[in-house]
Specification:
Two copies of one chain form a homodimer. Chain A is built from 14 helices and seven strands. Chain A starts with a helix and ends with a helix. Chain A has a seven-stranded parallel β-sheet, sandwiched between helices. The first copy, chain A, folds into two domains: 2-279, P-loop containing nucleotide triphosphate hydrolases (Rossmann fold); 290-320. The longest helix of chain A has 28 residues, at 262-289. Chain A is of the alpha/beta class. Chains A and B meet through α3, α6, α12, α13 and α14 of A and α3, α6, α12, α13 and α14 of B.
């Protein structure tokens, strides 16, 4: 633990493995990390497969290193080079950072963890923050509820799109529009980039994706003066173009978060969700352990029509309370 | 309650409205329904918008009426005629059944209910079964986790596809393949129907979508002798073609469920999930009510780094246990 907090990469790796496997020592680890565990800026990077998430992440790591930040990367993307799904080129490029002591890169799998990645990821973010990372980039594939949940653990969420993939529509479907603080149309030199850019601008103008402490209908498309209107940027991460503008937008969003108190609000909301999930997980384990009148016995009675579900729930709670 | 159990449509309607709004009297209602609440055959009907779910549901209602069954329909589909999204033709056709006392049709919305439709739908199914419906058809749009959950409350799940909509691939993505017992390629007279049919057959042959009490890799694509291999049928519901074959497949699946004990297993699993969801909902409400050391206060401490989430979870549980 001491060595992890001093930034020893092997010690950090071991701790994240414990997090992934849902080790019984997690409460002690969490306690030992102390207040450093919340100090990192957490940035979520999401988007459909093929939009260039790992290339963009790679360039962002480079940009943050240039300004002296220590960077952690958690890749929870099955198509990511970190987890083995991508082409060799990406893999090799990422290895540039692998020998940089100021960069910690880690793929996450959900093996063994009770709550899956949605539970393991915030714990891993705390480990990286505790090990001295100033910035933690969490890269996820932007499809499905689980990924939206993981993205929601970030202070700032960056959604990548690529031209001609129908991504703008997909983004709405998957609920990603609501979680995006910054959109990046990557591969901006390709045909259709302008159309994608306009589509997403149009959707934002229609009032989607506005975050703020309150939402009202007004003259400016539902925004209040203190609201954040999602930024839309263009980039070509493979050519390292447009990266500085992304970093600038990230810092602008950070300043907004702090100025408006939204950072505190988001972090408290996340903390509440995490605490509740841990507590409910504990209770679920207790349900399974109840002797006699356990969940399975009650379920059999309900399935047979001998008991109704509400009465069964009451009996279950009586068993643990 | 007496009148609902006797099948009075207005009394049934009132009960389902109470279910939708999460009325405090739900436990008493559930208790009063007694063992009739589990007697109906529950069939889930799902698929993307535009595949012909309501037309197919309509024809299935007709077919079940012809063989003397009392039928309940719960439409939890925003694009369904019952909830206002479809064309007038469908709406009028469904009204044929509206004057049949052996058919009870109801749309479901999630207004007010704590657990949303996923919580309200099983309760509404019990009301319909308690009111004497032999068959309850639950129609949902097959996109998103919530809909998959709702479909999973059925004994048999029927997934509708239509030619040329890329549905086969979508089905895999959305996790629908895993829940389908019967596939119906609707609009089978259209171009591409054969290709869709072959696609879905191919995916089943690759070992997806096999349900059974155990799954092993074997010579027959992962199936064991007692396993159910999803049926794939073609139909043109708008022309009332292929409906008898669907009813036959539904009864065949029913016989399989009963013969193998899978019906009991599925219903117990569903009952366990429902009981647990009710119990966790109660506990979540208790968390919110805790004085002083309540969830919000603990979340603020965790967000500030003064407390770790595990310690906060323990304190939260100490508050209610």
């Amino acid at each position: 633990m001491q060595r992890a907090r001093a930034g020893d990469p092997r010690a950090v790796a071991r701790l994240i493995t414990l997090v992934e496997s849902g080790d019984p020592a997690l409460p002690q680890i969490a306690a030992a990390l102390g207040s450093d565990a919340v100090k990192a800026v957490v940035i979520g990077i999401t988007g459909s497969p093929g939009v260039g998430k790992s290339t963009t992440t790679n360039e962002l790591v480079r940009a943050f290193r240039k300004i002296g930040r220590r960077v952690g990367v958690l890749a929870v993307d099955p198509s990511s080079p970190f987890t083995g799904g991508a082409i060799l080129g990406d893999r090799v490029r990422m290895q540039d950072h692998a020998i940089d002591p100021g960069v910690y890169i880690r793929s996450m799998s959900s093996r063994g963890h009770l709550g899956g990645l949605a539970a393991a990821t915030p714990a891993a973010v705390r480990v990286l923050a505790g090990a001295g990372c100033d910035v933690v980039l969490v890269e996820t594939v932007g499809v499905g509820q689980a990924e939206v949940e993981i993205a929601s653990l970030a202070d700032t969420t960056l959604v990548l799109l690529a031209p001609g993939m129908g991504d703008a529509i997909q983004a709405v479907k998957a609920g990603i529009l609501e979680i995006a603080d910054i959109f990046v149309v990557n591969k901006a030199d390709r045909d259709g980039a302008d159309a994608t850019y306009r589509d997403i601008q149009g959707m934002i103008a229609l009032g989607g994706g506005i975050s703020g402490t309150a939402q009202e209908t007004g003259d400016n498309g539902g925004r209040l003066p203190g609201d954040w209107r999602p930024k839309v940027l263009k980039a070509s991460a493979a050519k390292a173009e447009g990266i500085d503008a992304i970093v600038e937008a990230l810092e602008e969003h950070r300043a907004w978060l702090e100025r408006t108190g939204e950072l505190t609000r988001r972090r408290r909301q996340r903390a509440a969700a995490e605490i509740e999930a841990l507590a409910l997980g504990e209770l679920r384990a207790k349900f399974a352990e109840l002797p006699g009148e356990g969940l399975q016995a009650l379920a059999a009675e309900v399935a047979d029509g001998r008991l109704d579900p509400y009465a069964a729930s009451t009996r279950l709670l009586d068993g643990i309370l």
